[in-house]
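Hi all, long-time lurker, first post. I run a small reading group and we've been trying to get comfortable going from sequence to structure in the token notation. Rather than ask abstract questions, I figured I'd post a concrete chain and ask someone more experienced to write out its structure so we can walk through it together at our next meeting. Sequence below, copied exactly:
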Amino acid sequence: MRTLPLILLTVGLTLAADEHPAPAPKAKTTAKVASAPPAHAAAPTEAGPATPKAALAELSAGNDRFVAGKRTRTLDTGHDAAMRAALVKGQAPFAVVITCSDSRVPDALLFDQEAGRLFTIREAGNAPDLQGLASAEYAVEHLGSKVIVVMGHTSCGAVKAVREANGKPLPGNLWALQAGMTGLLESTPQDPNEDAAAHIAHLETANARRQAQTLLDRSPLLRDLAAAEKLSVVPALYNLASGKVQFFKAVAVAVSAPEAHH
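-- Answer (accepted) --
Happy to help. Here is the structure in token form:
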């Protein structure tokens, strides 16, 4: 008979334990850490390069980041609001980019530069008209740009159209493309050993060089600044497949000898 109370006591303790189970272990919590801006991110009011050489170096470095898939300036969105606020007060683009209207040539991305740093002039065939020339002068004279890059690109439809027309007027207002590239076909004839694609590639490079030279030929203001080494006008070619920009030698400015006084 003494075993019965012991059994009842054991059962009671078990039921009590079931009614009040032990608390579950607390789940580990991971503290959220705010993501830091990219290592190369810069403040929106950062001053641009101060010389033509430094300006070209910055464009080259930005293109290297684009090719490597390591853009920083155009991926950092943490400064967007501050950047807009700063740019309302004014702009100081360090470079002018004269390039084709082709949608596959996003100059800000391929040079990895955020708003306010590039002054872009887009014309089919990267052949600036009078307004494009005036825009370039404005950027250099009033905004302080240090370099003008005249950038063609591979697979340029405008260059191809001018080549295929072979002097015959293009329809509608497309004649303006031919006017903008006057002399291109004559200066770069097709070699008998090259096919059409190779000839177009040569025309694309030649057009970038010619447009850069024409820019200085048509603008005493730009020419004087280039002669004083305050500005560089650099032809370039963007490769659609690789993303790489090939910079060519800056256009040379002939310095006139001083007149002799007798």
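A couple of things your group might point at:
The longest strand covers residues 147-153.
The domain at 52-247 is CATH 3.40.1050.10 (Beta-carbonic Anhydrase; Chain A).
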